[in-house]
């Protein structure tokens, strides 16, 4: 039977919007289904509002003032709406030829969904291919009293009308760490609690310890290595009881923010009817983003593979290309970058040192400090380091960690180099504008030359050409040039 559509995309966040846009550009009759507003978490509850708060908080610290929270909310709402109107509004996608439908999609079988519309009516839709991009929501950990205690998540945090005087944040991952610094600088007394002994446990400890010191300098209280025994309270305030080494402590605050991870949104899709397999984390997909059904793909947070907007967009391109063009593209697992946009930023791409060590890979570490980046010196932003992990002789880049101003952009250079097989030698031979921060990425690559400098070779050059200069002092293996 002829299907109504070539492609139906379920979910209008970053992953779904990209998938629908790519699909219609390939000539496919495309429908996009979203039960709330287009833009998803990134526009309304994640990337955009969090970065607005971080920027306003940084400006407040520089100015030495505590901004009026009503003005903060006004700015936050204005920017969210501006981005929605400019990039996410349904009319923009309708002009592209995409049919946008508001409602909740429920599978009848692998080729059919019911769209449950806001007015209670249903619409049956058939399609050759489906792409599920329903995202994720905040994971609420099992804590005694949590069901009876009011708390915030990223879905409600950016809609509060008054700034809390005191706030407890549970979870020292990227969201928790960013919001800890932002609210502290906006005038809230923040306590950050996590079971891990450090913040950002997926990042290099040498850098997270520096970042933690910076956050604590802002006035944040970090309670790390603590378990949460219980929470209790009402709209007037909450009490969080924590425990470490059999000693308990109580933290009182006006608001509780839970940032303890994410949970995939797939329960309401009726995936059993479509024959799509899942596990406790999310929808199962292969490297082509295909589910257990050949005509159904899943991308973004709902797969629980990566919880980054840029990876959602990447997976969207992979899925649509495989589905519509039959091009066997695969997810690029080797060059995944991420960045926590604190002050300073902390970013990573590729393999970590821990991963390389566990796999027995031979590599060298090439370091360069922000204190030797001239632009960082002029800007008074010298806190930070660049670490690049690469093969000794070939200079093949295996991974990188960056702590400092514009670390997210800096790590992008290394992602580009890794993806395209650019060695540290070629990186070092590339011309970067002075005095930009990008020059620091190149200076880190210069260290490959420094480590391969040989006194014997210099002796040979001096003898061949009759030069009379001194031999280089290579006695310090950790020297930085």
Runs in which pLDDT lies below 50 for 5 or more consecutive residues are none
Return the structural class: alpha/beta
What is the average per-residue confidence, as pLDDT, rounded to a whole number? 96
Strand content: 15-25%
Task: Describe this structure as you would to a colleague.
Helices cover 34% and strands 25% of the residues. It has 16 helices and 21 strands. The protein has helices spanning 14-25, 40-44, 47-63, 69-88, 90-95, 154-157, 174-185, 205-217, 271-274, 309-325, 353-358, 374-379, 407-419, 424-428, 438-451, 455-465; strands at residues 5-10, 30-34, 99-102, 104-109, 112-116, 122-132, 136-138, 166-170, 189-194, 221-224, 227-234, 237-244, 247-253, 255-258, 262-264, 296-298, 337-340, 345-350, 364-369, 385-390, 397-404. Helix 1 runs parallel beside helix 10 (309-325), helix 3 packs antiparallel against helix 4 and helix 3 (47-63) runs parallel beside helix 7 (174-185). It is globular. The model has no long low-confidence stretch (mean pLDDT 96).
Notable characteristics:
481 residues; 7-stranded mixed sheet; 5-stranded antiparallel sheet; 16 helices; 21 strands; 25% strand
Summarize it:
This protein has helices at 14-25, 40-44, 47-63, 69-88, 90-95, 154-157, 174-185, 205-217, 271-274, 309-325, 353-358, 374-379, 407-419, 424-428, 438-451, 455-465, and strands spanning 5-10, 30-34, 99-102, 104-109, 112-116, 122-132, 136-138, 166-170, 189-194, 221-224, 227-234, 237-244, 247-253, 255-258, 262-264, 296-298, 337-340, 345-350, 364-369, 385-390, 397-404. With 481 residues, the chain is of the alpha/beta class.
